Amino acid sequence: MGDSDRTISGVRDIVRALDPRLPVYGIKTLEAQIDSQLSQERILASLSTFFSVAATLLAALGLYGVVAYSVKRRYQEIGIRMALGARGQDVILLFARENLATVLLGIGIGIACAFASTRYCASLLYGLHYNDVATLAVASVLLLAVALLASFLPARRASRVDPMVALRYE
Question: What is the predicted pLDDT for the residue at 50?
């Protein structure tokens, strides 16, 4: 900042030496000018990042809730399976497979919709690339991880319950 202050005061001195009646105000360095011009875009980018992270967290939380609820609704079925001799690992794998199939179908539909809408979105946003595979891959892996966790935790809990207690669960 010291160099730019000296440069600005030098420019003022030169202008005053040429014509003392000329007003000299609002002198900025190129870096300061660019920063002031891009401040609104930076705020919008920060807000977009915040809201996209919030939307991703809400989607993950909603996915977890739906998958965990679907497992919890089937406690009696788990009790019957356990009473007939199923191992806890078998029950966990059954629910994980079923829920992951549904989640993979949803991810496939979501990716197809994302690819279909990228041209429109790219025309509205600067620097958005068509078919940003890295972003789609990260979102898909995140949702798959949440679905696995949402399937695993309630199914593991249910597989450890006594079959008679699970059969009476309402």
Answer: 95
Confidence at residue 109, expressed as pLDDT on a 0 to 100 scale: 93
Q: Evaluate if pTM is beyond 0.70.
A: no
Burial class (CB in 10 A: 0-12, 13-18, 19+), 12: middle
Do the Cβ atoms of 151 and 99 come closer than 8 Å?
yes
Intervals of the chain under pLDDT 50: none
Task: Tell me the C-alpha distance between 33 and 8, whole Å.
Answer: 13
Reported as half-sphere exposure (CB side, CA atoms, 13 A), residue 48 has a value of: 9
Cβ within 8 Å of residue 67, ≥6 positions away: 99, 103, 147, 150, 151
Pick from 56, 57, 91, 66: nearest CA to 147: 66
CA dist., res. 76 & res. 124, Å (int): 51
CA pair distance 140, 12, nearest whole angstrom: 57
What was the pLDDT predicted at 1? 53
Would you call 82 exposed, middle or buried from its count of C-beta atoms within 10 A (0-12, 13-18, 19+)? buried
